[in-house]
Amino acid sequence: VLAVSLQESARHDEAEPLLRAVLADPGARTLGAGSAPLRAAAANNLAASLLGYGRIAEAEPLVREAADLHKSRYAGSPVRNGKDALTESEDALSVLQNLALVALQKGRLDDAIAHQKQFTLGLRKVGTKRQTLDAQYMLAAMLFQRSQSGSGRSNDAAQAKKLLSKSCEGYSKLQGSGSAEATKCLTNLASMGGVKS
Asked: What pLDDT was estimated at residue 27?
């Protein structure tokens, strides 16, 4: 708990040793029934801190461990499969977000988009409207980037414009048409050639 509080206060240097201590403790497996495993949370939180410092190579195995731990909770469950396990709670969703960020930073755009799509869909179930809009906005940016790279799918640009248009509309409704988010979104949409006159 202290490590997460320090991390949320942008005191990453103080949180890192505490998170590493949790990961080093073989008894750190769960917080209790219905909660995300402590080890998964610590691995993912440490990965997030490392990503913030640009330490991608160190973050990747930690976020993968967190994903595996969340998936293993539902192994053999007839209700959920491992893939769906990452869209069932905000803790698990943050793992998807970190997987997307790692893949994006490592130039694996297809993987980043796949994780970001799952993250966005999961937030539609359990996240706030603002979180969902932000995730959707990022997904649109990734799809547009792929469309411009020459390796994209034929509908990437159209999907990006559609998602970005929905994000702009959502920001306008949520925060007002003159808000910084709505204005930035509309500017980016215009740069894609997606604004209707």
From this structure: 62
